[in-house]
Amino acid sequence: MDLDALGRCVSTASCLVTQTTSGLIAGLLLFLVAAGLTLIFGVLKVVNFAHGTFYMLGGYIAFTTLQVTESYTLAVLAGGAAMAVFGIFFERALIARVYGQDVLMQLLVCYAVVLIFDDLVKMVWGADFLAMGMPPAFQVPPLFIAGGIVPPFYAVLIGIALVIAIALAASLSGTRAGKTVLAAAQNPTMVSALGVNTDRLFAVVFAIGAALAGLGGALAAPVRSLTPGMGFSVLIDSFIVTVIGGMGSIAGALLASVGVGLIRGFGTIGFPTFTDGLIYVAMIIVLLLRPTGLFGREVV
Amino acid sequence: MTSGTAMRDIAVAAAALAILIAVPFLVHSPAFLDYIIRIAAMSLFATSLNLLVGGTGLVSFGHGMFYGLGAYAFALLMQRTQISLAAAAGCSLVISALVGLAVGAVCIRLRAIYFAFVTLAMQMLFYSIIITWQSLTGGDQGLQGGIPRRVLFGFDLNSQFHLYTVSAVVMVVGLLLLRHVSASPLGATLRMIRDNEPRTAFLGVTVWRAKLTAFVIAGVFASLGGILAALFVSGAYPELANWPISGQAIFAVMLGGVSTFLGPLAGAAILLALGDAVTRFTEYNGMVLGLVILFVTLGLRRGVLDVLTEALRRRRTGPAAGAAE
Amino acid sequence: MSLKVENLTKRFGGLAAISDVTLDFPTGSLTAVIGPNGAGKSTFFNLISGAIRPDSGRVLLDGEDVTAHSRGDIVRRGIGRAFQVASIFPTMTVAENLMVAVAAHRGQWAGLGRRFPPPGARVRAMEVADLVGLAHVADTLSAHLSHGDQKLLDIALALALEPKVLLLDEPTAGMGPEERWQMIERVQRLWERQNLTLVFIEHDMDIVFRVAQTIRVLCYGRVLAEGDAAAIRSNQAVIDAYLGTEEHAA
Ligand SMILES: Nc1ncnc2c1ncn2[C@@H]1O[C@H](COP(=O)(O)OP(=O)(O)O)[C@@H](O)[C@H]1O
Ligand SMILES: [Mg+2]
Q1: pLDDT digits 0-9 by tens, A223-259
Q2: Residues in B 203-262 with any Cβ partner in C closer than 8 A
Q3: Where among C162, C191, C222 does a domain terminate?
Q4: Helices in B133-262 by DSSP H: which ranges?
Q5: Residue C42 in contact with ligand 1 by CB distance below 6 A
Q6: Which residues of chain C are within 8 Å of residue B196 when distances are taken between CB atoms?
Q7: Pairing with A31, which of A145, A255, B190, C176 sits 20 to 30 Å away (CA)?
Q8: CA-to-CA distance for B69 and C40, rounded, in angstroms?
């Protein structure tokens, strides 16, 4: 624990900027993943323990796409699109078989998928760390904002993640299909009573959720290294975010993601070995005060 | 009649113990004895988890916390103090009970999936503390340097044979006690809560007290498993407290079956054997395990022992039902 | 034991499910509570039994204030209830259902010293099963019981607690005409033999008029009328608000 360092950082503009930036990046990328998770839970009432796997696969697919096409844009799109397709397949082939069953069954089916794909990735890409590296266009000198170092790519990443978040929010609240999804997240029985094809709705929601996770993985690939099993820590963070925000709440997920990102950003300075611990403590405190999370409704 | 079922359980336990003690004289395989010792640790852990999962309907994702707590508390007491092994084990169980009381008081207020996640968060918090508090726990290196004074009632636990015998006794007695808990009035109350919690409250049961008691008991028996694990690996390591250990216990419970008392024991035995066999043939054991899990969950849809008991029951009642028609 | 509620009010959001209800149920009375769907009848029972807390008002049991006491405490003071949708323990047999209720009633539910069932629990459970006519299915898994028998078991669970006041939420819900009469005759016999203060919610007017000593009509959370069968039959407000809608629905 190094509270002096934390105090010094908070009182220096440069350190504040650097840590806030890295906190925001971590938070917004996490939001992409967690938004998918909370959406899937809200509509399907399934806790997708395989969500980290989508994130991992998105990253690896982006890695290979970048190598082949040398286009980061294509790489990110490929990561997201591949996961949308994979999500539909996964939902129809496996998850559809455990709807309405207890959470343990869902956990185990997803856990199996995690194990299988961790090993598949090992077979295809190897067990070692892979570094995708900064896309060439961004290999330029960093920006200095108030004395804090901000690589341009970071700024772009924050921008892209924000755009996706806003697009998601807009399409959920602004389109008919989006409203159906939101309504389903609030009250699934009502929507099926209205004659919506729930099978198709579920598959679409799963695809969107998986695509968001894939996008998150692809976007993050240049700044994080790729390794089989990398999905787990993201999964845990997403769960924490979903639980703190309230299962099924997108707004809650955004708030909690940024919060967790910032705790990470500044925690590394004040509590270098206990940043994870801080986040668990935060989650436990929130749940003690609000047993269904910040924006959560009673879940049965 | 009540004491009749108790006598039957004691008889089964005694027979099982006799067989276990005879094993080393029949099978001269150190690997096999190791396997049974690991089952002893794992089965106490998994069966105690099932008191919550199958017995109360409380799905805990963080039960491994108590497995790790037992191992660390025990190893630390042995390394840092001069008390005897039995006293260290007893103190570890008391510590686990107290921690279980505190953690349980927080967790049991939450419902369903929130309970599952907050237990997981508690375990991850515990794990973070282990990794961070290096001076006490050795951080990610774990508590090395072995466990001194490995003697218990004349058994020298440095000998594999003696450790095996003690583990077998602890497992059988531990499981018998857990069996007693689930067959007791409290066990029946826990099943009420699992079936229909609101109705239970309307019958005058103080639901939180029943749940908390179950949580503490489960924690104590999980840490008993952890103590055996610490003895087996001669120390305590972060892996004993990390999330995959909870995942293993959950899978053992599901694999063996939640509604049969010995299901988790069978699950632990199958899981450990499977792990050993697969590592011998391929480095991709996750893939094999994943396929097995898919087969059990989507194919069998229940644990192995649950399927077997169901089949047995049907064979027994089948002809009678046929005659009645 | 007498049950009394004074100025009981409960709102859900803007909706007053129960508003300013004052009612008296004397010791040993047999009362029907009627009213259209959504009138607040179940909510009324929930308030009395401690399932939810009232916003204001009091619940008095033999003059003693039990408002907002815990469900367990209210049960121990003698108010038992059965539910609109039978609330039982589906993985247990009928006998086991009743034995756990008996153990709970005797304060033995936390016992670890012996095996289940505690001594005497089985005998008592069978007595209760006899009382409601479930003895012949004592060893049947309660999930496999017929709908009517599940409702009976729900009532039996309440009876295992030896209540002084018994609240039955639509005991005949979902039953055919013949089954309804069987059920209500059983309930009536229980009331006679067990010396109960019994309150039941019922939609079938024939049953209500034939069985109940007193009838209370709830509508939009308020007491619309009370009195015996003749008084209710001729009450214009009831005919307009309730009997009218009933015909309308049918
Ligand atoms: N827990 C609750 N939350 C919100 N509204 C409720 C709740 N319980 C009941 N209500 C509402 O209160 C009103 C009365 O319901 P209820 O007491 O069940 O009626 P009844 O049993 O007479 O049919 C209904 O409009 C119902 O929707
Ligand atoms: Mg009702």
Answers
A1: 888 888 888 888 888 988 988 888 777 888 888 999 9
A2: 203-206, 209-210, 213
A3: C162
A4: 134-137, 160-183, 185-195, 197-202, 207-233, 243-256
A5: yes
A6: 87-90
A7: A145
A8: 51
Give the number of the atom of ligand 1 that is nearest the alpha carbon of residue C44: 17
> What is the distance of C-alpha A290 from the center of its chain?
23
Cα B214–chain centre separation: 14
The pTM of this model reads 0.88
Provide, as residue numbers in chain A, all residues whose Cβ is less than 8 Å from the Cβ of B241: none
From first to last of its 300 residues, chain A has per-residue pLDDT tens of: 677 777 777 777 777 777 888 888 889 889 989 988 988 888 888 888 899 999 999 999 999 998 888 888 899 999 999 999 999 999 888 888 887 777 788 888 888 899 899 999 999 988 888 877 777 776 667 777 766 677 778 888 888 888 888 888 888 777 877 777 777 766 666 666 666 677 788 888 889 999 999 999 998 888 888 888 888 888 888 988 988 888 777 888 888 999 999 888 888 777 777 888 888 888 888 888 887 778 776 543
- Residue-wise pLDDT for A43-65, tens only, equals 888 888 899 999 999 999 999 99
* Residue ID of nearest Cα to ligand 1 atom 6: C12
- CATH classification of the domain holding C71: 3.40.50.300
What is the Cα–Cα distance from C79 to C73, expressed in whole angstroms? 9
Question: For residue B94, is pLDDT > 90?
Answer: yes
Among the partner-chain residues B53, B59, B114, the one whose CB lies closest to the CB of A292 is B114
Q: Give the closest ligand to the alpha carbon of residue C33.
A: 1
Determine the residue among C66, C75, C91, C109 to mutate to test chain B binding: the one whose Cβ has the most chain B Cβ atoms within 10 Å.
C109
Q: Which of B72, B131, B67 is nearest to B100 (CA)?
A: B67
Mean pLDDT on C1-11 = 88
Locus of tokens 């367990």:
C72
At B2 the pLDDT is 54
CA C101–ligand 2 middle distance (angstroms): 24
CATH number of the domain enclosing A50: 1.10.3470
Could you please report the per-residue DSSP string of C78-134?
A: TEEEE-SS----TTSBHHHHHHHHHHHHTT-TT--SSPSSPTTHHHHHHHHHHHHT-
Length of chain A: 300
Structural domains counted in chain A:
1
The predicted structure's pLDDT at residue C19: 87
Whether A contacts C, i.e. 3 or more CB pairs less than 8 A apart, is: no
User: Where among C162, C192, C208 does a domain terminate?
Assistant: C162
Residue C158 domain boundaries: 86-162
Quick: pLDDT tens for B56-89: 999 898 999 999 999 999 999 988 888 888 899 9
Residue of B nearest to A114 (CA): B290
ipTM for the complex shown: 0.86
| Nearest-CA residue for atom 7 of ligand 1 | C12
Question: Does residue B139 have a pLDDT over 50?
Answer: yes
Calpha distance B235→B147 (Å, rounded) = 6
